[in-house]
MBL fold metallo-hydrolase
Amino acid sequence: MEPLEDDNSRHWTEPGVYTVSPGVYRIPLPLPNDALRAVNVYVLVHGDSLVLIDSGWALDAAHEQLEAGLKGLGAGLGDVGQFLVTHVHRDHYTLAVALRRKFGSKIALGLLEEPSLRITSDPEAQPIKAQVRLLRRAGADSVVDELAKAFKERQRTESTFWEAPDEWLTPGRRTVLPGRELDIVHTPGHTAGHVVFTDGAAGLMFSGDHVLPHITPSIGFQPAPAELPLRDYLGSLRVVRELPDMRMLPAHGPVSPSVHARVDELLAHHDHRLAETGETVASGAQTAYESALKLTWTRRERVLTELDPFNQMLAVLETGAHLDLLVYQGKLAATDLDGVRHYTLP
């Protein structure tokens, strides 16, 4: 498997190893669902030394595809010295744990992911306990039971892949390979400890799930929820917008020429979505679930009930995040009654 130019002539999910920049390669790895389809792992190379940004999901198919991609670079899985992980979601973190057990490579993860990782790694912890609580607060009891059942089975099979990293990352600059420095930038919102890595000399930003080219990242899906994840996310977008513009190397989607251009689109999207969400309350919705039923979802503008339970959960929680930010901004008022949060015009 020889490296190919990453020139968007192939669909970004097509297996292979792609040259992004001198010493930087992209390897898409498969995911077990039809939505995202793949996650990009980026390989930084200097001589015989390899550092990977993100790792993929601990699946046999991902393991095999990563091994084949590294072979195309004349390397093997045992040559990976370190995984720099943008955030603690399973499609970014768990294959690193599996490979560390076999080869001893190191894992580094953002410091503020520690509370969520501690909860996830407890095999006795109730799966998605925090999300169930937030769904009930949103008045979305109708999606809770089926969702909890699905995650209980997943937790049984995957809880063993959640282990602490070797290093907790904090913002700052570090030399990751001879001649290559990365800046670690804390970008909370998608998760509380999400980080992006920037290579100013090469003009590259490894944006993880913070900035994606085709979709808007989910907000605050983590075992230890943030109080106002949308406020955090919009603040992180503005932090990235204040940096010099760079090529965007996302976790899901093709490499894109401008981080700034996509950040501007995401900020505009959320401005529009905040206005839409406020209008649902003005038209009679009282809970996040009722508001979510009035909105449309995905680029296909589906109604909430057309989504599977997992994506219904993400939709309701995102709606709640928008409503709570509107309350924080003084544009709505909120009252908790019998465990359910009700929103009204102020």
